[in-house]
Amino acid sequence: MEELARENVRRLTPYQSARRLGGKGDVWLNANEFPTAVQFELSQQTLNRYPECQPKAVIENYAQYAGVKPEQVLVSRGADEGIELLIRAFCEPGKDAVMYCQPTYGMYGVSAETFGVTCRNILSLDDWQLDLQSIADNLDGVRVVFVCSPNNPTGQIIKAQDIRTLLEMTRGKALVVADEAYIEFCPQATLAGWLAEYPHLVVLRTLSKAFALAGLRCGFTLANQEVIDLLLKVIAPYPLSTPVADIAAQALAPQGIDAMRERVAQILEERQYLVSALKAIPCVEQVFDSETNYILVRFTASSAVFKSLWDQGIILRDQNKQPSLSGCLRITVGTRAESQRVIDALKAEKV
Questions:
Q1: What one-character-per-residue DSSP string does 193-243 give?
Q2: Taking the chain, what is the end-to-end CA distance rounded to the nearest angstrom?
Q3: Residue 265: in which H helix or E strand, if any?
């Protein structure tokens, strides 16, 4: 049956999600999830009817939280669906291109390739900031530019002035999509307040990280109404199931947002503990600054370290294949007990 598939799909390397990579661990620090479960009770039991395409309570609660208007919000099956909708709505297969700056999140490229849209990969500068000159030199034919800030997997915020320069450079030519999956860990860096100034700015958000709802698959696209209306033309008729909308609305109520901020404070404290401990371990060459719930670390003999911890049930994320990340592993900030497991295992490594 393979010969019936589209050629680009036959050649496609799928995104290697944490669950797809497998492993038999009991300390899962490879998917940037919140380490403990949050309890919710379903209040919506009418499952014989189709749900709203854009559930009113979810949209209104998120708009209030993000400081935008309800008509500037679209909710989808994770931010990953938002990525796909933007490519489908704005890129002509076989003609247009998307651009992103590596090292970064792998789904931008996978989604574009799936739809037959060209990928323009621009290498970031040595400090993983935007290479604005290279971006300018390669913008021809690009319809969507993805910028992950804070960037996954490097953990740093992209300089606001550089994003402004990019937005000026792309006016009337391309969308600039700021992926803010981790913005709750550095809320001062959000670009949501820039929407009025830049009609071609789009912001992606998710409930998977600080809201501790990765299993819910609920994400948001923030943009000006003209962009949202176009995305509503291509989104599936019922993207969110009734239980998902129910839990999302609860998570975005005032008490849910307060609980999220408490979780963020907990993760930031735990991150500092883990960073300090990692810096004292012999096999650790460098611990990079992070504004997120994960830490990028360069190790001596990183492949051996990765396998050794894997064999002990501690699952990290190997970043060796990403440009400029040779020797790097990404570690999600988990509970104190999980941090201690990692520290003890690394201290036992023979360099």
A1: GGTTT-TTEEEEEESSSTT--GGG--EEEEE-HHHHHHHHHHS-S--S-HH
A2: 49
A3: helix 254-278
Q: How many CB atoms lie within 10 A of CB 225?
A: 14
CA-closest candidate to residue 319, choices 110, 189, 151: 151
Q: What is the pLDDT of residues 156-165, one digit of tens each?
A: 999 999 999 9
SS (H, E, C) 111-163: HHHHCCCEEEEEECCCCCCCCHHHHHHCCCCEEEEEEECCCCCCCCCCCHHHH
Contacts of 188 (CB under 8 A, 6+ apart): none
The answer to which of 7-21, 120-134, 196-210 has the lowest mean pLDDT is 7-21
Judge if pTM exceeds 0.70: yes
Distance CA 46, CA 50 (A): 9
Q: How far apart are CA 202 and CA 160, in angstroms?
A: 15
Of 31, 82, 17, nearest to 212 (Cα)? Answer: 31
Cα 195 from chain centre: 20
SS3 45: coil
